[in-house]
Protein 1
Amino acid sequence: MVEAVAAEGAGQDALVAALKELCEALSFCMEDAGGYFPKEAAAQALMRRAGGGDGPGATPDVILLSVRAITYLCDAMSRATDTVVCHGLLPMLCSRLLAIVYLDVAEQCLQVFEKISWR
């Protein structure tokens, strides 16, 4: 799943499907699975997608699902929060909230902040 999200040149439909699958898997994930989950690769891929690093290919769905996956990742594996924060999570969330383009994305960003604050 993480490989599909990180893949360069993936079609939007395939990317959205991979992000949905990742979100679903993370929503049922337990902390003990953290040893098997590629946190570093996931953090890099999700931050790139959530930050709109793909230019015009970054659709609202891709951005929303990426931020949602980050939310689930921070909730399921508290140790992954440090990894995502090291990859620039806080500035990215702040920039999304300072220039709200998609309300759903802004609401999801607030949920990520909430998960981080519990840590």
Protein 2
Amino acid sequence: MANKAILKAIAKGDVRQLMAKDREYKGSWKKRGGAGAFFMLSRKWDRIEAQCEDEGYDIFKVLEDMRSDGLIDDVGDLRRYLMLVEMEMRIRHASEHQIMTISEKGTEHLVSHPTPCKGCVECTGEFVRMDDTYTPPAHLYKARVD
């Protein structure tokens, strides 16, 4: 992938922004349950669709013609909302002490741990650091064999 660095920067920026917004809004995105989350996604998609309609839904052409960053902002917002929904779905379906991971180069890194372990300081049920230097506690880490 030629633009791997850009993709990584977008993903890391999304995580930082989601964590900052969660501190500010405290999970208000799911306040109205699953139907509310669905319509939150729908409204964002409707905005993207409306901006692309006049150009035959050629999203790249719309981006070239735009003077503001409205469309790219909406695409980013939708991507982050989808990340929130996926996270919630995974947490709700995770068995006790199952870890959520991001695989990169054959290694799994801890992203969240939905149920805190007894006596484990690291396991808070919240997002933990997501950088290249973080190593989860040994009892949560598992090597991935490709």
Protein 3
Amino acid sequence: MLLKNLFLLAFGAASAAAAPGSDDSQTLSKRVLRCPDSQYVSGSKCVNKCPDGSTYTPWLLSYYCDCDDSNASWTSSSNKCNCKSGYETYNGKCVAKCPSSSTRQTSDGTCKCDSSSKEIWNNQCVNKCPQYSSRQSNGNCKCDTDKEAVGNQCLDKCPINSSRQSDGSCKCSGGKEIVNNACVDPCATGATRQGGSCACTDSNAEISGNKCTCKTGFETVGTVFWLREG
């Protein structure tokens, strides 16, 4: 009988020590709660060791957090994924900072040079390539195949038997003139260029040799070609 009373007394004391809501009960709860390696106990919960946007990765006897964004790196002291040098946060992602003299556009997040005459290449603002040219892999501008670089322009190549002048124009040799990108003889005296060919200014004349002469049945009176009478 004495032994039974001692047992009940000991059991009752243990139950009272672990009563719900008591400090001993909470301690017992913490001891029972076990979290996976990627988490730790906080209060009565398992909390991730790594911040959102990163993955827990065991390493030797410790761990590190691998940021989901390749342009970000984890800092253990702050337990955050911060953008790497040269990058900044835009819409929750780490993107390359805009180069000097450019501004990020709110519409699509791209960078645009402040000067309309410049464009971004290799993360810097450079002069735009001239019309009829394209940017090459080395950053240089190359004119289209039927053009050539003259100053900061791409102009039509000079035709055969002509040369480029100081003002950028082309000049044929031998007194010829350029028509449809070719050097041709000038029109005869009294004729003008019309649609690439020469025609006499007087409809009663026609080109013969290197001048305009009267058509059959016409004769010259002064500087005008008249119909011959009789």
Protein 4
Amino acid sequence: MRLLFEVLCFSSLFLSAAQAYTFWDDFYVFFGGVNVHFPGNVTGNTVELGLTNKTGSGFRSKYPYLYGQLSMKVKLVGGNSAGTVTSFYVRSTYKNWCELDFEFLGNVSGQPYILQTNVFTLGQGHREQRIFLWFDPTADFHEYGILWNQKLVLFLVDNRVVRVFHNAKDLGVPYLEYQPMYIYTSIWNGDSWATRGGRVKTDWNQQPFVASYTGFNVSNACAVKNVVGPRFINTYNCYRKLYRSPYGQGPNLQLSQSQIADLRWIQKGFLVYDYCTDVNRFPGKVYPECMLVSGIVEEIRVGSHQRCMAAKFWDDFYVTYGNENVKYPGSDPGYIVQLGLTNRSGSGFRSKLPFLYGELSMKVKLVEGNSAGTVTSFYMASIFKNWCELDFEFLGNVSGQPYILQTNVFSEGVGNREQRIYLWFDPTADYHTYSILWNQALIMFKVDNRVIRVFHKATDLGIPYLDYQPMYIYSSIWNGESWATRGGRDKTDWTKQPFVASYTEFNVSSACSLKDGYVTEDLHACYKMLYQSSYGQPPNLALSQSQIDHLKLIQKDFLIYDYCRDTKRTKNVPPPECSRNWPSITLSSAITAASTESHGFSVLDLSPKLSRDRLTV
């Protein structure tokens, strides 16, 4: 089949207008011909590329191009596409090549596709940016385009700018300016890295995986037709055309206000990775071209979410998995989110922006009835290799028995700092507020504004603090029956599915948000806000007397496990920070049974259930 297409390579002159040419007028299959199909008719106006466990497939243009605007309409693989990579890109054939990539990273059913773009100049890449798409790219065709001139390269999705790469030769960065590039498309197996860093593999039971291409358009681009080996002797005409064509003249030499608005919109709501801000991957390295972009999209990076969130869920969050189990009840959907768990999948969501210091809260109503084996969570986590994390985890229990709230703290990848308490109310009957106050001196975990735990800064004792890693907000429900309820002795009763937890009233009115990335000026702005805002000044730098009283009560009546007191686990040597994490009080025993004395709490009558045996977890 490949020979057939290559025999046809002599055909027509290159597109000079947006006309309905057939596939083989301008392309040929360069691998996986057995997986290439032309549905509907023989004209080849639509091409399907398939991937099986034997081979992927791809096609390439017959001519390379030097400057202009090029686009292709693509419909991506539907269903469970995890591990697959579908691409549309342009690339030269030089040893030190240039390349501009659209790569679509497949995901499991119901989760969003990630679009990864990349730029190579003279063989140097590592300029990945990743965004979530704001539509379902498997339901219909969408247009992906590149505008390339002497000043900049624009990546466009449905004519909306999602990325810009400026000519930065004056800063020592090579530009894509003399190498004509061919157009390629392909689908291939990238399950070693494509989906969740390679943790989710390709399910070959779903093969073939099929992506469709149509609507190729180079009506505003320059084809280089005279090719002798690797040398292109007809580039002069393309330079002349560049300076005479719309794509090489203003306003296409700089971003318009609407394009700047597009970039800000992408950066605020859909950007999930940017090489420019990956301080973990490139420690101490600053890419000069990044400064040109940051100057354009400088916006409300700090404080864009510093308000009580009356916005709807999708304004500030996106579903990370289990979309089929996520519901939005009510007459005006979007203010309440329900996460469900079935024996097939849990579900979860994440904030679009990370935060550095402040007070953050969420109201949650937990799974009612027999929730044994389920884990409902509200937590914060960074995306560094040695990450930081602050957890609220609600461990389900059998009907009529109290929920256990487990909190945990990770600093630079080290956790194992669990504390568990019984809640003094029924968390399934109504919403309750769970919050974190995080500043330069301490972290408080609060329930309905009562402090239930404190983690003090203890860098002087050799304990890393959570003081430079912005963290995203996550919520999820999942099956933890191997450990969650009575050490795994009570299993999930799937006849009760779906298990549903509800979330509402996310509030970061006193917190510092960053764009999705950690550039220096953003971090400095959050540090500045820290020392100017109430959460970073007295009295929030130390526990008040009423907060100390709350902690004493929690410790006396509701605490059922504390890593600091687990002598078997710590070998009688508590971690250094433990000396600061509880007010000094004397207990009659290491952990006492929860009492029914209210102490200002509205306490359930749990005395028949809270026996010494029940406290063995």
